[in-house]
């Protein structure tokens, strides 16, 4: 089957004004097939179905683990490879050569390795290698899926940076791009050639269902439970609390593989795209303190004692709801959160310790740290909301504003659910 045939079957054949509204990953995009940019989107989506390898898929991994002596969790990386390696070294996960030194530790990376930063491919490769090295040492690496991994697999490249495309470029990229552009209408070829960076075709191929990275990502879990603690990117909402980690993971894997086209057609009804799903839910970070009873219900339904999540940036590892929720995305990618930093959360013997490049402090269990070396107070608690990066509310004399204060600071239309959703 030729690329042109696939494009026609996808409703992308030139000259026909076909408007299709999709809301993949909470971004409403109306595709007018007669526009140059929209035809480019059609071409790119088709690529994922054309350039694939024919390798068998790996088996799904289990999602419940007990009797683990030490856990280290790390939030969003977003291509910040150097900071990622640095915090792994500080946390005793890798040595100065970047090799596994964590022994029997379980490392949990909570997703969003991709987008916003140039070195996401290097971070993915590092995690894959550490997974093998940890297994040999009696440890384990849990790489979880975030909403940006799902976006990439669904064909949403809105937040891919030039460096991420360049990481896939080879000596053959220019010729491959020229060959591909020849499938477009003659009048569009020169412009399309300028809008497709070298490496784009190879990147899309690599994240296809059987591509080098797409194949592996589709076997990963969205949630794991270790020693009764749930780890996931966004969070467990009241509407998904009744689902076991196995049920959630099986659904996410199916929606990104066997049911990929169904998911693309109606993302907001899917587990990977819905706002209260495990990859997108922000309620654990943004709901007011009065949400505590809901947290208790979620934990009871999950037979868990705490949740560790990322997705919503904070300035430091933040504990909510009496030590039942831990927020660990502290803005590792400086290009996205300029005043952010890398961090890790260590869990050992019931003690939760926040680890930074130059300090560490106990945040729950044991003797709470308030001496030198503890993380500084927040300038503001949360930089991101379900409506994008918003101006932060001013801190009070007692410290950072509460999530409820930040919700009140959002425009009324956003609080009511109107307006665009961010990625």
Short description:
By secondary structure, the protein is α/β, with parallel strands linked by helices.
Structural description of this entry:
By secondary structure, this protein is of the alpha/beta class. Helix content is 31%, strand content 14%. The strands form four sheets. A six-stranded mixed sheet has the order 3-7-8-9-11-10. A hairpin with a 2-residue loop joins strand 7 (223-226) and strand 8 (229-232). Helix 2 packs across helix 9. The longest helix has 18 residues, at 120-137. The chain is globular.
SSE arrangement:
Blueprint: H1 3-9, E1 19-22, E2 29-32, H2 36-50, E3 64-65, E4 70-74, H3 81-90, E5 106-109, H4 120-137, E6 140-143, H5 147-154, H6 162-166, H7 173-181, H8 189-195, H9 200-206, H10 214-217, E7 223-226, E8 229-232, H11 245-255, H12 260-265, H13 283-286, H14 292-302, E9 306-309, E10 318-320, E11 325-327, E12 344-348, E13 351-355, E14 360-364, E15 384-385, E16 388-389, H15 403-409, H16 412-415
Features:
single chain, 423 residues, six-stranded mixed β-sheet, 16 strands, 31% helix, globular, disordered N terminus, disordered C terminus
Unreliable sequence segments: 1-38, 50-58, 370-423
**Which range best describes the helical content: under 10%, 10-25%, 25-40%, 40-55%, 55-70% or over 70%?**
25-40%
Q: What is the name of the CATH architecture of the largest domain?
A: 4-Layer Sandwich
CA-based shape: globular
CATH C-level class of the largest domain: Alpha Beta
Mean of residue pLDDT values: 80
Name the structural class: alpha/beta
Number of strands: 16
Tally of domains: 2
CATH superfamily of the largest domain: Metallo-dependent phosphatases
Q: Please state how the strands of the largest beta sheet are arranged side by side.
A: 3-7-8-9-11-10
Query: Biggest β-sheet: count, sense, barrel?
Result: 6 strands, mixed
What name does the CATH topology of the largest domain carry? Purple Acid Phosphatase, chain A, domain 2
Strand content: 5-15%
The Cα radius of gyration reads: 22 Å
What is the end-to-end distance? 34 Å
- Tally of DSSP helical segments: 16
